[in-house]
Fold each of these.
Amino acid sequence: MNIPFTIDQFLKVFEQYNTTVWPVQILLNLFAVLMIIISFKKVKISDKLNSGILAFFWTWIGVVYHLLFFTGINKAAYVFGALFIIQGILFIYAGVLKGQISFKLTWDLYGIMGAVFIAYALLVYPVFAHFLGQFYPKVPTFGLPCPTTIFTFGMLLQTNRKVPVYILVIPLIWSIIGFSAAVNLAVYEDFGLVIAGIVGTILILIKNKSGKIVAI
């Protein structure tokens, strides 16, 4: 894929975003931790709250990152922004309004893989970026597309009900788009994105079809 910007321009967008929205990054990480906590100790509104937080993440990325920042170097970001906003709406529809997504942390194959993706998105991803020579603020923080997409697949693996297939389409598409850009720009921490996208989608579809827990 032909990338219409340089790695320096790409990292400059991260810098502009991170310095402008600070300290929202802290809030986004706290929201992610809250999702994990209330998936362990569920209350009546846990599932709707978690779906609402995912909707907020995707809408935030679509509006703030893609439309306000990334469009400065890549006009395709208008399309990306629209896709992320649509995904946010889908989480509202499926999870908040229809109650079709139920989160429950488990220790079966799906839950363990989900935990790996969550840990990668929140902990390994920023450490990996640091060792690759990417330093704040010129680094993708949580709440930006790639780590948040990985986190999303991790949470969708932590469910005890069939996940609507349409919820998976845009995250899978982004995992492929993001990986293509990562290869061209040598953003190696994003290689985990395509793994989360493909493996996560396959496991969720298998889980949907079987309706069974696969223990290891």
Amino acid sequence: MIDIQVFHCNMLDENCYVVSDDSKQAVIIDCGAYYSEERQAIERYISDKELLPVRLLCTHGHLDHCFGNGFIERTYGIRPEVNDADEYLISNISGQARDFFGLPFNEPTPQVERYLLDGELIAFGHHQLKVLSTPGHSPGSVSFYCEEEGVVFTGDTLFRMSIGRTDFEGGSWQDMLNSLKQVLAKLPHDTKVYPGHGPQTNIGEEVAVNPYFR
């Protein structure tokens, strides 16, 4: 069984997840920790649970999901993994901060450890996550699916009764619809959805009620 702890981060209330099992190995998904208290909360949780973070996974390269990448590298020695189509985003977090928010963000951006491939399996502890290519919000957006536990981390592709924007650079409405209908909708309907923002949901409820699946 896996433990999933969510941390609400930065000015956009982004969901960062620390996912672990009884092996004590953990993966960190979308570390958007911007403020010091957010980083301290993540570090305290990992320390209190005696976890060993082994992977830093990014559903996509937008800054609100990556503010904490440098903090994670400095603290745990692991670097971000992202689909290569979002390399242009994750390598320019400071530029995104300036362009989106007018914020100075001068922390060094960690080098990408490796690029995620559609269908590959990411192992940690006694579990694995399958990378699902779900572009639309960004060209390299991916979701992480744990079939054994029936959970999927969807980043900004799917929210409860909503979806991510497609009007940013590299976004695509057609790709988003394909990701929803041809990838996520085909998961078992009892699959729990852990989105990049907002509350949890499940695939069956979204397919039945979310207007973007029609």
